[in-house]
Write a structure and sequence with these properties.
Length: 159
Amino acid sequence: MPRLYGERSWQIPNELGPATAMTREALAWAQAFPISEQAVYSLRLVLEELLSNTVKYGYSDPDPHTISIWISVNSDVIQVELTDDGHPFDPTGHPVPDILRRIESGVDGGFGIELVRRICRHIAYRRDQHGNRLSVHIGSFDPDELPSSVPSGPKESPA
């Protein structure tokens, strides 16, 4: 059974400055736990991509909105849940970008959602009365660097 290290939540306005500050704070908080450097990198990428997309594209009005972020870190996964009241957007159904075509066209960006999907063990979206709810799971350790408390699998018997 995974061991819970901690959980925390934030409420931020839909602005890039607070999103960046929250990401820094969340990374500093998460690094206090025994998780891999790869997990920290993945958490950073997930927060930066999802929060910046929400702030830049989630709203068509200038009104203030609140984005809620909840993070739980345990010995197996880092779970991140983002809730916002922006436009409905399901990143799990977003088409896979044509990488070669985008590179040849010289257009910057467009790979963030795909990167998030590729580094997460699990990603789920739903729309409810509170708006968009996106949940992602990131492995908390690098499989090549298993912590001593995590079994590495069955041992081979000597022949």
